[in-house]
């Protein structure tokens, strides 16, 4: 088999290993901890990609530059595929999927008030808070909750900055405020 | 691999440059759909260019082989869908990120659970998400009742099937 054909399959095999490992971890090892199972699956897939690329470099006598290039390209491709897989399994936590599920379970449709009642925003918020505490992303003492310096908090802060850069606001529910991109857009007009 | 890397990165760079230039000039009304169409348009334009160049024997040494073209397509599409996926958190808020940021902004005094539920809860998300589902033609509002459209049904089935494989609880959201 030609080298270029074999290289093509490396990220795909990595993704299959990721998915198998993630499902196995979720069911039997991390006991329903989604984030841990996703991290374990990603690490297993990435390790497989690295091992496969080193093996291929020996088999097809690629030099160190060729190995590095192939490894970087296929690790990036695998990471993107893994991110898409993560987004797919994360859909179970999506509010839109919850709404679709409620409507799907209502033969003949459902009106707005009944949909809102069954959506249960307050109950859902409490569950989210419990999940944030359980994952170590928030810390609570008595009734008060405090921020924890975690990758999740960094993501939240970065997300607000990027959102402001692109849309001029830090939340879909807040008013537009000036941002560098908005200024450029305004100048272009 | 050099040909694959060069083509893959160039194609992705081109799409991102068009995206940024477009967004600088004018923010599209439906950002996600526009972004997805932009990435796909660049992809199909590249396929058309490859076919044309192969037929006219242009840039023979620079063109990827069919297997390399599939590898480039895999890289480009995986990156494009990842970018669009990440962009959903820019287009719409994530409740968990929003709550975390609210608690962080409250500083040393923090926020009570009650304040979080009242001011940063999912009430306003409900209205926004229902509207988006209607706009995306997954739900329809007919005679005051919401009903599922085929696109919504398909997505639902996919998620439910996968959650069964994972052995996850049936509780969604």
Task: Output the keywords.
heterodimer, A: 189 residues, mainly alpha, 8 helices, 2 strands, B: 173 residues, two-stranded antiparallel sheet, 7 helices, 6% strand
Explain what this protein looks like in three dimensions.
The complex is a heterodimer of chains A (189) and B (173). Helices cover 72% and strands 4% of the residues of chain A. Chain A has 189 residues and is mainly α. Chain A folds into 2 domains: 3-93, no CATH class; 123-188, no CATH class. Chain A has a two-stranded antiparallel ribbon. In chain A, strand 1 (138-141) and strand 2 form a beta hairpin. The longest helix of chain A has 27 residues, at 3-29. Chain A is elongated. Classes of the chains: A mainly alpha (189), B mainly alpha (173). The interface between A and B is large, with 83 and 84 residues.
- Count up the helices of chain A: 8
Q: Helical segment tally of chain B?
A: 7
Q: Which runs of chain B of at least 5 residues are low in confidence (pLDDT < 50)? A: none
Number of strands of chain A: 2
Average of per-residue pLDDT values of chain A: 85
Short description:
With about 190 residues, chain A is mostly helical.
Helices and strands in order:
The complex is a heterodimer of chains A (189) and B (173).
Chain A: H1 3-29, H2 34-59, H3 64-89, H4 95-104, H5 112-119, H6 121-134, E1 138-141, E2 144-147, H7 151-167, H8 180-188
Helix pairs in contact in A: 1-2, 1-3, 2-3
Chain B: H1 2-25, H2 31-55, H3 66-91, H4 95-105, E1 111-112, H5 113-120, H6 123-135, E2 139-142, E3 145-148, H7 150-166
Antiparallel strand pairs in B: 2-3
């Amino acid at each position: 088999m030609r080298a270029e054909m074999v290289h093509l399959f490396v990220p795909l095999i990595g993704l299959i290993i990721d998915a198998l490992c993630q499902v196995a971890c979720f069911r039997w090892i991390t006991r329903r901890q989604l984030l841990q199972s996703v991290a374990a699956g990603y690490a297993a897939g990435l390790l497989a990609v690295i091992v496969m690329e080193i093996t291929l470099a020996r088999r097809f006598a690629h030099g160190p530059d060729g190995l590095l290039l192939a490894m970087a390209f296929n690790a990036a491709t695998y990471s993107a595929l893994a991110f898409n897989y993560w987004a797919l399994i994360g859909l179970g936590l999506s509010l839109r999927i919850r709404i679709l599920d409620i409507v799907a379970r209502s033969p003949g449709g459902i009106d707005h008030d009944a949909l809102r009642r069954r959506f249960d925003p307050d109950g859902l918020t409490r569950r989210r808070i419990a999940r944030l505490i359980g994952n170590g992303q928030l810390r609570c003492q008595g009734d008060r909750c405090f921020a924890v310096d975690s990758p999740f908090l960094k993501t939240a802060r970065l997300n607000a900055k990027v959102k402001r850069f692109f849309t001029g606001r830090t939340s879909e529910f807040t008013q537009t405020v000036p941002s560098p991109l908005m200024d450029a857009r305004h100048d272009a007009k | 691999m050099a040909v694959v890397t060069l083509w893959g990165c160039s194609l992705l760079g081109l799409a991102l440059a068009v995206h940024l230039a477009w967004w600088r000039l004018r923010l599209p009304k439906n950002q996600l759909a526009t972004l997805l169409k932009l990435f796909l348009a660049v992809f199909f334009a590249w396929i058309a260019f490859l076919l044309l160049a192969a037929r006219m024997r242009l840039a023979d040494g620079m063109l990827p082989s069919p297997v390399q073209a599939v590898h480039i397509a895999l890289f480009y599409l995986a990156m494009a869908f990842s970018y669009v996926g990440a962009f959903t958190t820019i287009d719409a808020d994530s409740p968990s990120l929003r709550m975390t940021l609210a608690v962080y902004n409250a500083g040393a005094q923090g926020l009570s659970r009650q304040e979080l539920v009242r001011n940063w809860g999912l009430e306003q998300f409900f209205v926004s998400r229902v509207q988006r589902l209607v706009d995306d033609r997954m739900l329809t509002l007919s005679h005051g009742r919401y009903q599922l459209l085929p696109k919504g049904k398909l997505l639902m089935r996919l998620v439910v099937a996968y959650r069964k494989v994972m052995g996850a609880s049936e509780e969604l959201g």
